[in-house]
Amino acid sequence: MLTLDYTGDPLTPFEPAYTRDSGKPVERLDPSDVDLHKIPVLPMGYGAAREIIDRMTGETAPENWHSGIPTTHRIEGGDELTVRVRVNQPKALTLAVNVVGTVRGTELPDEWVIFGAHYDPWGFGAIDPNGGTAMLLTMAEALGELAANGCAPRRSILIGHWDAEEYGIIGSAEWVEELRDELNANGVAYINADSAVSGPRFGSSASPSLKGPIIEATKTVEYPGSGMSVYEQWLQANEREDAPMGNLGGGGSDHVGFYSHIGVPSGSLGFGGSGGVYHSNYDNFAWYERFGDHEFIYGPTLAKVNGVLALRLANADVLPYDVARYAQDLKTHTETIERLAADAGMAMELSDLHGAIEVLADAADAYETARDAGVRGEDFPDAELRAINQLLVALERAFIHEEGLQGRPWFRSLYASPDPFSGYASWMLPGLRYEIETDNPEQLEFWEGVYSEAVGELTSRVEALRERLND
């Protein structure tokens, strides 16, 4: 909801929206005091739109405003055109309900590996969101069978089904706000499954620390009917020699609260490639069965990949984060920011930030060397492993900027955030990028300092890890 500088329930900014009968205090803003949307919106079909556009006689619209309708597009209708629209959008308080199941960990139940997807659709929602919902239920059933047969995970695995995502990511955002302290202390990872199955093409995006674990999980599961692993087919389909991992950070789904608000490492993986029905009534079971996954094989395949990922994160002695990836990705994003500045005519050289990233790279390499040498084949006391993992969980939080981003105090991750102007696209290093996009070069030096300090803090945490392993 781009009219507000926060996400979630618009009447309870930064605080959980408890129900009135919960027994917990909640103060709601008056709706008249909240900058809710005021422009009425009514979807219409192709035929109706064509009838209206054909009758418009005003100034021709810019080329990038044109739709796929083969007619001249205009900005105004002209004096002779009248369109009557009736919009029924009543305002009311409505109960939103999250459903969260837990496979309780046997040894570290307070450490959480979380998977989730929203369950509210715009229409029938066969793909968005229920391609992911069905996959999560399949995975939950398998994890439940393992637990019932004496193979429960060491850490807890939570599977959340979030309500009211389509109305502003409300359900998951409120859950994160309610459990902010617990998630800050013990949130190992969040994996989003919104619209996770709609075709044969595998893809994934994630925060740096989860890229390695996701890639490794895809190497263990066979791609249906190919004789190859999901990983091998992923490379082949993209004609790559390395996994084309994307960078999570955009808006529009439930990872935002976990990742951009409190800094829980997050990822998204799924099978796609058959689109064109997004947020329409064609997104139904008939379409899914005929075009999306007509043999119902990609959902179970994804459940296997996610199941492997869940169990590895939940059972590892030392959390298998891809620590070295932080420096690798930060270097790429910093170079991208410099190119964007140059394209905008801004003279900028982020030498201090580059220097901080080089120090981080050395520290991360030293940590991974110590981890591989120090943990393999040796027994660490449980208390020591717990301390090491607590330091690992805290790595991503080094990017949390308590004051928030420019004009958006709810979005606190310096590493990634949704584009503030569209609400959807991923912005990496958003504090720096905002100053470029708003043509404000005077603030770039300040934000470089903020980023250099955050990278320095991350380096200190990585060095603390290496020291624990070497003691």
Topology diagram in text:
Layout: H1 46-54, E1 99-103, E2 108-118, H2 130-148, E3 155-162, H3 170-178, H4 180-186, E4 187-192, E5 201-206, H5 208-218, H6 230-238, E6 246-247, H7 255-261, E7 266-272, H8 285-292, H9 298-315, H10 324-343, H11 351-374, H12 382-393, E8 416-418, E9 426-428, H13 430-437, H14 444-470
Parallel strand pairs: 2-3, 2-4, 4-7, 5-6
Antiparallel strand pairs: 1-3, 5-7, 8-9
Helix pairs in contact: 2-9, 3-7, 5-9, 5-10, 10-11, 11-14, 12-14, 13-14
Q: Can you characterise this structure?
A:
The longest helix is centred in the last third of the chain and has 27 residues, at 444-470. The strands form 2 sheets. Strands 1-3-2-4-7-5-6 form a 7-stranded mixed beta sheet, with helices on both faces. A two-stranded antiparallel sheet has the order 8-9. It is an alpha/beta fold and 471 residues long. Helix 5 (208-218) crosses helix 9 and helix 12 (382-393) packs antiparallel against helix 14. It has 3 domains: 43-84, no CATH class; 99-315, Zn peptidases (Aminopeptidase, 3-Layer(aba) Sandwich); 324-470, Transcription Elongation Factor S-II, Chain A (Up-down Bundle), CATH 1.20.930.40. It contains 14 helices and 9 strands. Helices cover 40% and strands 11% of the residues. It is globular. The model has no long low-confidence stretch (mean pLDDT 94).
